[in-house]
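Need residues for this backbone.
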């Protein structure tokens, strides 16, 4: 793990006192996609957050570096998410690595092949799993189980503390642009489930002075992944960061966050018909595997976007195919 201060701490030195545990390998690389036979497309890049850590990466590692800081051996962590939630899996993996145990509350939803594999592996890593019939019932059970010495981590790791990891990710990207590793993207495209990654990125890009628009491909119900939700989370993260840093934090331009709805496919975990084509194209070009719940939907949206627009775009890969 790197001992170099996080971009977030370099920008806001007061945050050096915020507890943090190094779990990942940063910065994650950016690479230009050479998809072959797509000369009419705009310039498409990829941010390889599948390489945040080994053996299990993905965007959730960034939030967990703050959410699991100071975890003591034997400590119990409670979290929640859908049966195929990569957040539950990643949390359980790193809690175990730090010597703790995970209790999970999960709820049923449509399952695709990658979601089934995620669910199976997460169950093996958790000390206990309660399965509910719906998110509402699942969250009620999770809240009933809180208390005592149990550390609570919300679905997706989406809290002001967890979002610091994604603000840091945006500042990391800004440094890569300054170093000439890629051009400043006009848009960053990523899946939006609980909204924390998109909100943190939008705030971090604003702090960095970049004009990049965050484009979220909605993969969850609108109430959890709509534009109002992401804006609300970004405002919460902004206020939290201002309090921690003692500095004025710029407001986010509402036009810098867009949500694409047409890739949702009607249910969380339900594979998007037609997304297998772009996913196969990416696999042939890079060997990367996308999943039906999150990244295949977002990559399909990214491909459609760069077919229309000729400005550089960045697909933020949040899923680690090695977990399969």
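Answer:
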């Amino acid at each position: 793990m790197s001992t170099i201060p996080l971009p977030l701490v370099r920008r806001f030195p007061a945050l050096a006192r915020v507890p943090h545990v190094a779990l990942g390998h940063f910065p994650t690389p950016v690479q230009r996609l050479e998809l072959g036979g797509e000369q009419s497309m705009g310039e498409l890049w990829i941010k390889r957050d599948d390489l945040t850590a080994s053996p299990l990466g993905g965007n959730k590692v960034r939030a967990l570096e703050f959410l699991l800081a100071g975890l003591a051996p034997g400590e119990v962590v409670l979290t929640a998410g859908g049966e195929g939630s990569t957040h539950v899996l990643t949390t359980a993996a790193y809690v175990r690595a730090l010597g703790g145990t995970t209790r999970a509350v999960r709820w049923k939803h449509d399952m695709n092949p990658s979601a089934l594999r995620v669910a199976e592996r997460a169950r093996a890593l958790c000390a206990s799993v309660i399965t509910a019939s719906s998110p509402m019932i699942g969250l009620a059970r999770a809240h009933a189980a809180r208390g005592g010495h149990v550390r609570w981590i919300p679905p997706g790791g989406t809290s002001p503390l967890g979002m610091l990891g994604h603000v840091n990710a945006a500042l990391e990207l800004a440094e890569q642009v300054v170093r000439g590793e890629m051009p400043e993207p006009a848009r960053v495209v990523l899946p939006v489930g609980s909204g924390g990654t998109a909100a943190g990125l939008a705030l971090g890009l604003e702090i960095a002075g970049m004009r990049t628009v965050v484009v979220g491909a909605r993969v969850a119900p609108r109430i959890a992944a709509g534009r109002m939700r992401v804006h609300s989370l970004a405002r919460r993260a902004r206020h939290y960061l201002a309090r921690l840093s003692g500095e004025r934090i710029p407001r986010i331009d509402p036009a810098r966050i867009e949500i694409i709805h047409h890739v949702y496919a009607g249910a969380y975990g339900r594979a998007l018909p037609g997304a297998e084509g772009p996913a196969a194209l990416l696999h042939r070009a890079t060997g990367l595997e996308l999943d039906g719940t999150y990244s295949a939907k977002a990559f399909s949206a990214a491909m459609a976007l760069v077919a229309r627009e000729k400005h550089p775009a960045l697909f933020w890969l949040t899923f680690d195919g090695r977990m399969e």
